[in-house]
Amino acid sequence: MFRAPPARFVVNGAEFDYAGDPRRTLLDFLRYDLALCGTKKGCDHGQCGACTVIVDGKRVNSCLTLAVMQDGCEITTIEGIGTPHHLSALQRAFIKHDGFQCGYCTPGQICSATALLQELRNGWPSIGEPDDDLRERMSGNLCRCGAYSNIIMAIREVIEEPAA
Amino acid sequence: MFFSYDTPDHRNLLDQTRQGVIGRPLDRPDGPLKVAGVATYSAEYQRPECAEGVLVCATIAQGRVTCIDTDAALAMPGVLGVFSDKAMLRRPAQGGADKAPVQDVACVEYFGQPVALVVATTFEQATHAAKVLRVEYEPGGEVPHDPEAATSEPAQDPEVLGDLDAAMASAAHSVDLAITTEGHASAALEPHVSIAEWRDDALTIWGSYQMVGHNVKELADALRIAPDRVRIRSAYVGGGFGSKLGISHDALAAAIAARALGRPVRVVLTRQQVFDTIMRRSETRQRLRLAADTGGRLIGLGHEAWVSNLPDENFAEPVTQATAFLYGGDNRHLAVNVARISRLTAGSVRAPGEAVGMQVLEAGMDELAEKIGLDPIVLRKRNLPATLPGKGIPYSSRMLSEALDTGARRFGWDKRKPRPRMQRDGEWWIGMGVASAARVNMMQPAAALVRLEADGMVRVETDQTDIGTGSYAILGQIAGEMLGTPIERIDVALGDSALPMGAGSGGSFGATSTGSAVFRACEAIRDELAHRLGVPTDALELKDGIASGGGKSAPITQLLKGETLERTGRIKPGKTEQDYSQASYGAFFCEVAVNAFTGETRIRRMLGVFGFGRVLNEKTARSQCLGGMVWGIGAALTEELAFDLRDGRLVNHDLAEYHVPVHADIPDLDVVLLDERDAPASPLQAKGVGELGICGAAGAVANAIYNACGVRPRSFPITLDKLLAELPDPLEGET
């Protein structure tokens, strides 16, 4: 039988122990074990970004990391960013600018963009013009409905808002 | 039982109602759930004791499964069963099939076809056991893998008018082009999934589907049970684009395993399985012939296509669909020929037909305009027929000229250089291109129930799905407008086959068809409210919960007297379908930069101007157009299914190798929606918009590439290698 070393980590402020199947990805842990299904499985191979979560402040494809590897980590999923009645500024901007259609890539886009805002504040190097830079930084998140222009408008609006 | 749409409804009722919500760019009601990650997609229903199934797929191209050695897999921890039931699907169902597709997975028809299902307690156990399962085959089969090596069946129903050869011979100007397009994948972000659960011989499937009413019939037929024993629920669908029109392998596999195991079973296709087994858009080889007189009027139009599919599959990419109605020319030859090959099933991928036919037609029109020495916009406007060629029936409404003119002004078309390679920006050639947009309009039978509750709340119920198209938004807006009810007092329930059967989401017909059913249900409620108020229906005004007319006025809730009022609305296509040529139209304008050294193309600007009848929600309709244009850019530059000609295997079966556009590929796209009413299309005066944004878009990109660098693309997608060989010395014209 498989035996995993126990991992203790925090998801959206709550602490969890995981000592189950070591093959379980962080993505499947969130979806199966915690029923936090906002994190989506689009490809399971790190190619689409639908499973993006924030681990210790950084964007991570949760399908490419295992649950047992999260020991000591602090994880934020879309459910930790805002709820339907208490949405984040970015979530509100996505609704306003229709930055989604089917909605399946949306949690990943928003988690990615949320971390991106912090990257900008932290002065991560830019690749060029602000809009090109935003698009490059968001290019790990595919949207097959083609809402890209609207997504960028939503992110741009939040960037341009005066700091609350 | 259905009320066919036989006479155009010229009342334009939605222009007289007073609530003022129709057409407005309202936020989607499902928005807060989607952005917060709590909209429940089909894989996410928590069913007790749900087991996990993983499909095993063929590693040969053709032949028979002779033995499945299950011992090793069954001995693994957690494994509950291995299934290879004859009822499992060999091919997915085509859209609207209403009956079982090809079953029996013991026979292999294409590389990657499902042959078995492994079920275990957990996903990891099932995945591991699926890899361990040993399947033995006896290879055999003569179906070729290369469409060029197959003999095409002669076209069914070719449209042949006059003598095209003679027209070409006598033409003052002509083009005769051979252009190819590669296959496309829908690649919806949500993989295909079914959770199957049996209770008292009745089956419930939580699945990701576009047309649940049709899917119930397909699934019941495949299981040999009555349709009323099957319920499908698809409240939220993570994209479809044609790939979820019919039932797929996951549904049968999950249903069979769940029945055998006596517990719910979830089957989610892997991304690779979605690519390998669901639906491809066929590659096409097209011959386009355009013959024009000295004045630039078409006297001949030929569009022939060669496409492919599996043997006996009745779908053939309808490449010439828009060519039949878009431009004139008395001498015509339109035909689609099908080669039978062993590759995964070909079927509907967003905008079947126009998505690949229009870009070739529009590239050809650009080339003809150049030969004649006409502006490409002028050539197009000069060739709009007064009536449908060959049929003589009128166009219901066509705003193509307006779209071209509006777009030209907004985009700055007058700044386009008349010849290629006249504008350089560093190492980039800059150019502009234009193309028409056109997509057939269809109505499908649809029903919807509207319930006006005693407290004035309105509930709309239909099995119509929302695959990102905005059904939740627009159906509520239609009801709110018709019943004078504020939008926050309206609830829309969708995607459950237990509800009245809507049109489903496909062929751009969902909003107008099911929307018309909602409209008619509301009309019946309005009749009753008018009766209760004591005024004629056409004098009734409903706004913000107040009914008024003929000098009388009363709150709607007072007229309801504590009762609920509900009506079912129905519609189906009728005489207006035969009496008018119906289509949505538009124009694309594109500015590209082509790297003089590498052949890389970047989209700098793109505009789409569209006329599709009444706009039901400006925000969601605009998003549909934007999305279509992104697909057009993908078809123009990057999307290409690559098959191994030795065994028909799809080589690039994932999102790393099949290149859908990403953020960095798409600049801010501009969309203009024209004000239009099309009464023959629907009582809403609305037409379809879901696919229009693709239809011709890649042609505008190709034409812009030519205007930039002087290379006429003959093969889509226009990848770097195809331009590089023909590009001139990059140092020429450098500034």
Automatic annotation (TrEMBL), chain A:
Q: Which PANTHER family match?
A: OXIDOREDUCTASE, IRON-SULPHUR BINDING SUBUNIT-RELATED-RELATED
InterPro entries named in the record: 2Fe-2S-bd (IPR002888), 2Fe-2S-bd_dom_sf (IPR036884), 2Fe-2S_ferredoxin-like_sf (IPR036010), 2Fe-2S_ferredoxin-type (IPR001041), 2Fe2S_fd_BS (IPR006058), Aldehyde_Oxdr_Iron-Sulfur (IPR052914), Beta-grasp_dom_sf (IPR012675)
Domain (2Fe-2S ferredoxin-type) spans: 5-81
Q: Which GO terms describe its molecular function?
A: 2 iron, 2 sulfur cluster binding; metal ion binding; oxidoreductase activity, acting on the aldehyde or oxo group of donors
Which species is listed as the source?
A: Paracoccus laeviglucosivorans
User: What keywords does the record list, in alphabetical order?
Assistant: 2Fe-2S, Iron, Iron-sulfur, Metal-binding, Oxidoreductase
Which lineage do the record's taxonomy fields give for this organism? Bacteria, Pseudomonadati, Pseudomonadota, Alphaproteobacteria, Rhodobacterales
Which domain of life does the protein's organism represent? Bacteria
Q: Which Gene3D superfamilies match?
A: 3.10.20.30, [2Fe-2S]-binding domain
Q: Does the keyword Iron-sulfur apply?
A: yes
Q: What is this protein called?
A: Xanthine dehydrogenase YagT iron-sulfur-binding subunit
Automatic annotation (TrEMBL), chain B:
Which ranges carry the Aldehyde oxidase/xanthine dehydrogenase a/b hammerhead domain? 36-141
Q: Name one GO molecular function term.
A: iron ion binding
UniProt signal peptide = none
One Pfam annotation reads Ald_Xan_dh_C
Name the residues that span the membrane: none
Q: Per its UniProt record, what SUPFAM superfamilies does this chain match? A: CO dehydrogenase molybdoprotein N-domain-like, Molybdenum cofactor-binding domain
| InterPro entries, per database record | Ald_Oxase/Xan_DH_a/b, Ald_Oxase/Xan_DH_a/b_sf, Ald_Oxase/xanthine_DH-like, AldOxase/xan_DH_MoCoBD1, AldOxase/xan_DH_MoCoBD2, AldOxase/xan_DH_Mopterin-bd_sf
Name of the protein: Xanthine dehydrogenase YagR molybdenum-binding subunit
Source species of the chain: Paracoccus laeviglucosivorans
